[in-house]
Request: fold
Amino acid sequence: MAFNRKQKLRDNIEAVRTAFILDKERRTPTARERLLLERYCGFGGLKCILNPAKELADAVHWTKSDLELFPLTVELHKLIRENSRDDYEYKRYFDSLKASVLTAFYTPKEITSVIADTLHDCGVRPDRVLEPSAGMGAFVDAVLDNKADADVMAFEKDLLTGKMLKYLHPDKKVRVEGFEKIEKPFNAHFDLAISNIPFGDVAVFDPEYTNSKSFGRRNASKTIHNYFFLKALDSVRDGGIVAFITSQGVLNSNNSGMTRHLMLKHADLVSAIRLPNNLFTENANTEVGSDLIILQKNSQKKELSEEDVLFTKTAVRGGISTNEYVFEHRDQRIVHTKWKHDSDPYGHPAVVYLHEGGVQGIADDLQRMLKEDFAKRLDLVRFKGVEQPIEMTPIVEEEKPIDSIAEELKTAPQAVEATLVEKEMEVTARHITEPVKQENGTTVQLTLFDLFEFTDQNKLKEQQNKHKKSSGKVKKAEVPKTEKKKEPEVRAVSVEVPNTMPTDTKAPNTPITPNAEEDMYASINWEDNPPINGFYEMMMNLSPERRKELRELGMQHQETKTQAGVKQSKREQVKEEKKQEQSEIKSQQPKAPQPSIASVQPPEEEKPLLPGPFDRPMESHYREGMMVMDSLRNVGYLKGVTAYGATFHPLDLSDYQADKARHYIIVRDSYERLYGYEAKQQEENNTLREALNTSYDEFVMLYGNLNAKQNVKLILMDAAGRDVLSLERAEEGKFVKADIFDHPVAFSQNEVTEVESPEEALSASLNKYGTVDLEYMKSLSDTTEEELLAALKGRVYFNPMADSYEISDRFIAGNVIDKVERITEWMKEHPDDERAAESLAALKAAEPQRITFEELDFNFGERWIPTGVYAAFASKFFDTEVKIAYAESMDEFAVKCDNRWNVKITDEYAVHGYYRSYDGINLLKHALHNTCPDMMKSIGKDDNGNDIKVRDSEKIQLANAKIDEIRNGFTEWLEDQTPEFKERLTDMYNRKFNCFVRPKYDGSHQTFPDLDLKALSFKYGISSVYPSQKDCVWMLKQNGGGLCDHEVGTGKTLIMCIAAHEMKRLELAHKPMIIGLKANVAEIAATYQTAYPNARILYASEKDFSTANRVRFFNNIRNNDYDCVIMSHDQFGKIPQSPELQERILQQELDTVEENLEVLRRQGKDISRGMLKGLEKRKFNLEAKLEKLAHSIKERTDDVADFKQMGIDHLFVDESHQFKNLMFNTRHDRVAGLGNAEGSQKAMNMLYAIRTIQERTGKDLGATFLSGTTVSNSLTELYLIFKYLRPKELERQDIRCFDAWAAIFAKKTTDFEFSVTNNIVQKERFRYFIKVPELAAFYNEITDYRTAEDVGVDRPMKNEILHHIKPTPEQEVFIQKLMKFAETGDAKLLGRAPLSETEEKAKMLIATDYARKMALDMRMIGGNYEDHPDNKASHCAKMIADYYKRYDAQKGTQFVFSDLGTYQPGQWNVYSEIKRKLVEDYGIPAQEIRFIQECKNEKSKQAVISAMNEGRVRVLFGSTSMLGTGVNAQRRAVCIHHLDTPWRPSDLTQRDGRAVRKGNEIAKLYADNKVDVIIYAVEKSLDSYKFNLLHCKQTFISQLKSGAMGARTIDEGAMDEKSGMNFSEYMAILSGNTDLLDKAKLEKKITALESERKSFNKAKAESNGKLQTKTEELDKNRTVIEKMSADFDKFVSLAKTDKEGKRLNGLKLDGLNITDEKVLGIRLQEIARNANTEREYKRIGEIYGFPVSVISEPVLKDGLTFVENRFVVDGNFKYKFNNGHLAMADTKAAATNFLNALERIPNIIAQYKEKNEALEKDIPLLQEVAGKTWKKEDELKGLKSELAALERKIQLELAPPTQEKAEESQAGNEQKQTQSSVSEVSRKGIRI
Reply:
C-alpha cells in the first residue's frame, strides 16, 4: 500500500485531538477512541510540519508538492496551541512533533508480531518485559497478544507519543521519559527487552555510564544506539533476551566495534538479520537500512566464539563498511529479493536491499530465519532459570500452624516471590520444575523480591548469621536413598506465596483422600478456583494427618497464649511458632523423616525481621532514607526508592520508641500532603490542615514538642526530619506552631479590604488586577469614581487602546512614540473623547527629542539594521550581487555570493595567508561581526617534521586594514543614500532606541503606616525619610523592582527595608528577601527590626548556616510567612536553585535549534535531512551536557527545599556589583577589558533566582539591585545588568547576546605595536562607546540615580590633594631598567629569571606591575633595597603624623589604603614600615595604629570599628576589599591616604566613602566640613596617569547615570588590570616628559601606517603581476582565435558536402587509394595497434589538405609500460577528437575521427572567446587596483612632519642650559621647593 501523506497527517491530528480530549475529561478511551489513537504513526516522512504554518501568508514558503498539506498543518498548529497552557508547553509539544520527523519510523505490525510470536513459539514467555523506546507500543501489543499478564515497563521520551501510549495501555507502566532514567534496582530484572531503538551520534547522560571507569561504557554513552544495547543487557536477568531493531550502523560502523565486543562479552548471539531498506516505506515513506539483533544474556560467559569475533569486526569492501558476520551470512541472513549499489540517506555509498513481497513477504522470510536461529542458538534452559541437571536432595522446610497461616492471609494478602536457589540442597518431596502459570487474564502487579535482590538465599542467611538473636540452622532431613530422585537445580522459579508456607516432607505422589470434615482443600474445584499464588496447591499436597497436627498445634499455642496472658502481635506470634517448629524439627530428625509435633518446645530467642518489599502505596514525598510504617505497622526506612516501589528495612526499636516513631510518621505525612497539595493546587485544604493539627497535638501530648531533646534524635533518623522540626519555631523561650498550621504558606491568600488613601487604593488595584480597576478602588476607599479620578489627576490616564485607565508611571513611560501613533489613529474615529485627548497630550509632551541622521554614529553589523541594507551595500561595494542573512539565535551573519570570482573579491579585498586565503566575502563576514581572522604561518619544522606555527602579524594587520575599509565604506555609502532612505533608517532607530521615557516617580504621598520613626531617630538619628528615598520606594513598588543607584551613605539600607515591608503590606510581594554583604547583613537586620518593631523577620546568623542547621533554616523559610528574610551573599549562594528553572533555561537553549531552522526557511532554502540530523544531534548533546551539570549540582547540594519552593517572590540585592561576574558568550575572545566570560557560580545562582521570579510574574525585573557603584569599571557592565533585570526588553531590541549589544553601543579599537621580537602585536579593546544618550535612557528607565548632593545628605565634602613625590635615586635607576625591560623583554634587568613563553605574552602587564611596586616602595622589588627618607612611605608617615597632631584634641582618625604591600605577619610590608616610622619617628602609640587584616572574624572587626569611632584607634590601614565596604568608622575621620590608585573607579569611591559619609562629626565641627583625600603620586611613575584615567572614567559613568551626557561618544582609555598599559604610553610616562608621550603616540601611528602601506604596496604588486599575466593571456587567446579561424575557413572552403549539406569524409591514407570508410577504419586501427613513432609525429595521410599524423607515447599501467598512439590533424594547431584516441570497436567512427576534429574548431574558438570576455571584464578592474594610490599617504606625511617638529622641540628642551639659564632654573627650583613645603603644611595642593 502506497504511503498516503495526507491520510497519515489526518490520522495523526485526530489522534492528538483525542489525547487532548482524554486529558481534559480525565478518563480512559472508548473503543472508538482507542482506534483513533492506534492510527497515530508519528511524523516520519511528513517533513512538511517543519514549515511555517501560523498564518495564511506562510503558504508562500511551501513547495508546490507540500501545499496540499498546508491546511492540515495549520489545523495541527492550532490544535496544539489551543490545548497548551502557555508558550512553553506549546513549544515542548511541537518540539516533540518535530523530533518525530527524524525518529518516528514505527515498525510494521507484521514484523513486531513475527518477532514476538516466534519467541513465544520457541518457549520464550516472559513475565517481565522492558520496552525502552516504545513509540506507539507496537512491540508491547505484540508481546501482550501472546502473554496478556506480562508485566510491561515501557519508556517513550516523545511527549505526545508517550501521552497516547499511556491511554492505550493504562494498566501498564508507561514512563514518558528517556530510557536512561531507569533506576538501578531494575538491573537484572527483566526477562525480555524488545524494541525498535533510536539511532544517532547523540550523547546520553547516565551517571553509571558517563562516570564509569570502563572506557567502553563511557564511549557507549556518546552514541545512543550503543548505549541502548549495553543498558538493556544490564536490565535483563541472566538468560534474559534482548531483541532490538536498529540501524545498520550498529553492525557496520567501525566506531561501534568496542560496543559489539562488550555486548558479546556477557551475552550469546542468538540472531543477527539484516532487514530490507523498504521495510518502513509504507509507514514512513522512507528507505533506511536496519538490522534485527537478538542476544541472550550469559553472565558466566568466558570467551568469544568464532562467530562472536566475526560479529565484532567490520571490513571495507568497495568503499562500503560491512560487518563481517553479515558478510559471511549474506546469503542466509539478509531479508531481500534484490540488491543494488547505491547510497544511504546521508549520501554515503551503501548496498541497498529491497524486498518485492511487501511487508508480509518480509515477515514470512524473517520468521523462517528466526526459527532456524532459535533452534540453533536459543538456550531455553538458561532462559527458564535451569542450568545443568544435578542430583537433588529434599530438605525439611519450616512449618507453620494453619491458623497462623490463615491469619496472615487475612492481614497481609500481598503476593511475593520466593526463589529456591542453593547447590546440593535437599528440596521437598514435591519438586517444582516450572513456574506456576496464572490461568486468568488479570493484570500482573509489580512484585519486588527480584527487583530489590532479596531472592538470594545466601544473602538472607548471611544477614541471619549476623544477627545475635538468630536461631540455629535447620538440619537436613535424612531421606532414604530409594526416595532420592535426580532433578534439575531450580533457579529463579517464581512461586507466589503470602509469606513462608508450610511444606510437607512427603513425596508429591502421596495419595490424597478427600474428607469434607478434615480437609477443606481437597474438595476445591480447581477449574472454578484456580491456584492463587501457589497456596491451594501447597495445601493440597499436605496429608490429612499433617493438617490435623497443624490444627492441633495452633490450638495448643492459642491456649498457651490465653493462659499466660501474653499480649503478642500477630507477627510476633508467627515468629514464635516458627521457632517452635524449628526446635521440633531438630528434635525429631534423628528418629524419623517426619517429626512429631508433641515434642515442640518454645524457643528462648526470636528471629529478626528481614528487609523486603514495601507493601504500601508509594506517596510522592517518599524518598531515600525516609522512615515509614508497613501494612503491619512495623517501623522501618526506605531504600532503593523508585516510582513503583522500594525496599523496606525494618528498625529494631523498643515498643516505646516504635510507638513514638509511628506518631511522628503520621505528623510527617500529614505535613507533606498538606504542603504538597497547597503548593501544587494553589488553594487551601482545611481537611488536610485539620489532620496535621490533630496528629501534631497528639504527638506533643504524648511525647512533648518535636524539638524537645528527647525527640530530636529519633526524628533526625528520618530523611525528612529537618523539614518536620521546622514545624515549630522558638518564641520567647517556647516552641510554637509554624504558620502552616494556621494558613497556607505556599501562596498568598490575604486580600486588601480597606485602604487609607486613593494612592493606596491604586496600589492595591495594580496588585490584584494589574490594571486601574475603578470599581475595586471604590469598594476599598468608599469614594465615587469622579472623586477618585479627581484625586488621581495626573496619576492615571485613559488608554483608549485598552479602553481602561492606566497609571501615569506606566502610561507615560516606555515606548511613547508607538503609543502616540496608535492613539492618534484611534482619535480620528473618536475626535470628541476628552479623556483620550488628555492622554495624547501627556504622551506628546513626554516624547524624547528626535535624533537626526547626522547625529547618529553607525556600526557596520548592528543587528537592528535590516540585512537587506547590508546586502545592498555589499553588492555595491563588490560590484556583484551579495546576499546576507542573520540568525538571531546564534547571533550569526551568513553571506552568500554566487559570483565569487569578481576581482574585488578575489584580489582587492582578499588576503592570502600561508595556510588559508580570505577573500572579500570572508572579510565581509568578519566586518559584520567586527572580528579579524587569526592567521598563522610556518617559520620552520620541528624535530618531528611538523610546521612551527606562529601568528602571521603582517597578514592579520592587512586583513584588519581591509576590514576597516569595508566597515568605513558602509558609513560612506550611507551618506550617499537618498534623503528618503536616511529618513527611514533614522525613524527605525528612533522607534527602537530613542523611544523610552523614564517616569517621574513622585513618592511624596506615601506615609508608610507601620514605620517607627521614633525608634529610628533614637537609635540612628533618622527623624524623617528623605524625599529621594520615598521616590525610590515608589518606583520599586510601581515597577516591581529596579535599580537603586544611590551613592554611598545616602540611605540605601532604609530604602531596602521600607520597600520590602511596603511590598509585603500591599501584597505586591508575598515573601521578600534581602541579601547583603556578610559585614553589613547584621546591620540591615537591626535597621529593619528598628524601623518595624512588630515585623516578623528571619535573619540568618552564621550558626544558622552551619551544616547541621542549614536545612532547618531553609525549611523555616518555606513553612512560615515572614515579612522578610535576610541573609548574606554567601548564605544565599548555598540555596539550591530550582531544577525546573534549569530545565526551562535548557529549553530556551534548545529552542535556538528550531529558530535556526526558521531562519533557513525564511531564506527559501529546502531543509535537508542532514541539516535536521545535525541540529537534532546538537540538541541531544546539549541535553546530555546540561543533564550532567544538573546531576553534579544535585550530588553536592543538601536535600532541601529549593529557591522556588521557598516562595520568595522579590529579591533585594545590596551591593549588587558583587554579582557582576555573570557568564556571557562572545566571539571577541581577544578583546581586553571584557572580564571573565565564563562567569562565576555565584552570579549564575543569582541569575537562576531572578529568572525564577520573572517566570512567575511573566515580567522583567522581579528584583531590586542596590549599589552606589552599579558600573564599577566599564560600560560593558551595563549589559550584564540588563541581562539580569531586562531580558524581555533586550529581546525586543534584537539583542540576544553581548556581541549584539556591543555592535550597537561600542566601538572596538585595534592597535598594532612591535613586540620585543620585532613582530607586530595586535591589541583590541572596546574603548569607545557610541549612542550613549540612548544607552543612558535605557538604563535610567528602571533606575533611581542619586548622588549625595542630590539627596542632601549631611556629609563632609571631599577635598582631593594630589601629593607629588620626586623619585629617589634608586627609583631613577630602576625606571631606566623598566624602560629597557619594556623594550627588550630582558627580565634579568629586573633581577628575575627570564620570561617564560606565557609571561612573554604578558610582558606589559609585568612591566606595569613592577612600576606600581617601584612607586610604592623599592623594597617591594627586592630585599637588597633600603629605606629612603624621600620614598612614599616616609612622605605618608609624615602626612599622617601632621594630621594626627592637628586633630589630636578631637582624636581625629585617618584611613590608609593600599592594595599593594598589605600586612602579613612575620614579613616586611609597607603597612608595618609606615607604622614603625609613626611609632619610632613621630611617637604615636602603637596601640592606636591597627591593620584591618589583624581582624580574623566579624567580632574583632566590629571591635576595631568601635574603637576608631571612640578615638582609641587613630590610624587604620587596609585594602579596598577588606576596608572599602562594611566599615562605618567615620565619626572622627579627617583624612584618607591613598598609597596606590586602584584599578576601578568604584574602588576609589568605596574607599572615600569610609570617611566622606553621614555621621562624620569631627570633620563637620572642626575641619570646615571637609575630609582631605590625599593621593600619593611619584613622578615618572604610573600614579598620576592612573588616577587621572580613573577620574575621567568616573566622570563618564556619572554623566551616563545622570543622563547629562555632553557628547554621544566617550573614550574609556587604554589601561586595565588584565593587560596593563600599552608600550608607547608606558615608555613616555616613565620618562616623565609629556612631549615624549606625544612623540610615542605619533611614532605608534606612523609605525602602524607604514606597516599598512607596506601591505598595500605588496598587494598592489600582486595585482600588477596578475594584470600582466591576464593581459598576456588575452593577447595570446586573440592570436589563437585568429589562427584557428583561418584553419576553419580553409577547411570550409575545401570540404565537399552531400545533397543534404552534410560534409563528406575526405580522408586519404598514404599508400592506400581506397576511400571506403570501413577499410580506412580498419587500416587506422592497425596503425593504432602496431605503430611506434618513438614520441615523434609521423604523417600517415591527409584530409582536405590538412596533414594527418600519429604519435606514439609510452604509458605506465599496472606497473607495466605500454605504447599508446594518438592521432591529430595538423594545421596552425594540432586538432584532436576524443583526445586523439581512435574508436577501436567501430571502424566507421575511427575513419571519421579527423573530420570530427576539424568540425570541433568553432567550439574551441567559442571557448577562447568566452575566456576573453571574462578577461576583458577583469583587466580594467585590475588596472584600477594596480593604479590605485594609498589613501593615507598624506596623513602619513603629515604625521612625519609633526613628529620631526616635536623631535626638534624635545632636543631643544634636552639641550644643556647656559650658565645664566642654569642659575635662573636653580632659583626657580628653590622657590618651587619652598612653595611645596608651605603647601604641605597648609594642606594646599593640586586639587582635582
